[in-house]
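Reply to dn_fold:

You asked what the input looked like. This is it:
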Amino acid sequence: MVKWLLNKQVYATPLSAGGLVKRALVLLLGVVLLYQIWVFLHICWWIKFNPSSSAFMEDRLAIIQEAKPEAELKHQWVDYQKISNHLKRAVIASEDAKFTDHEGVDWEAIQKAYEKNLKKGKIVSGGSTISQQLAKNLFLSSKRTPWRKAQELVITYMLEAMLSKQRIFEIYLNVIEWGNGVFGAQAAARYYYKTNAANLSSNQAARLAAMIPNPRFYDAHRNTRYLAKRTATIQARMEYAEIP
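and this is what came back:
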């Protein structure tokens, strides 16, 4: 009996290449599914509770601490009602004019951005909505890969399905970068204007909104002609912006 078992073990048929590939794919799909569940549970938690950080904030802190180990981010959560309507209107006018209307992705804006980038021969416009930007900031790295873009869309639709527009916008205003180590509306208001997010004027709000695409650059170059021009353009559009 023992001899038979040993012979069976020795002559057991090894897995074929196709079998190994199939097992690897099953394992990969399992990992991807577990990640989606992990993301989904986080979003469910944020229906009632505020995120204390984001993937992008953690990445930036790690980079800053390489040069200054004791450094900390400037960040303080502030409730939606305590953020100036001027800033809300300015951000929507600047980043996502159709925010209250679309379901997470503005395909028309993406098409326009693609055509603009093609014409310029380089990336000058992204076309990402506020929901897409939030999905990226909360969960994903800054590396541009096809997988990351696909995952961004999945997370975006999860956010839109589970959270109200107001809640999405509240979290967005509290976690986006507004300077080197500066995150969220309250920290930005204190850092640039020595005031609270609730007290930002129309011009101050428009200027902060104009900085969003490249906040670290404008933190170091606050008086550029383009920033002043962009601020004026946003301020002129603010009255038409619909906020949740």
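The chain has a mean pLDDT of 88.
Hope that clears it up.
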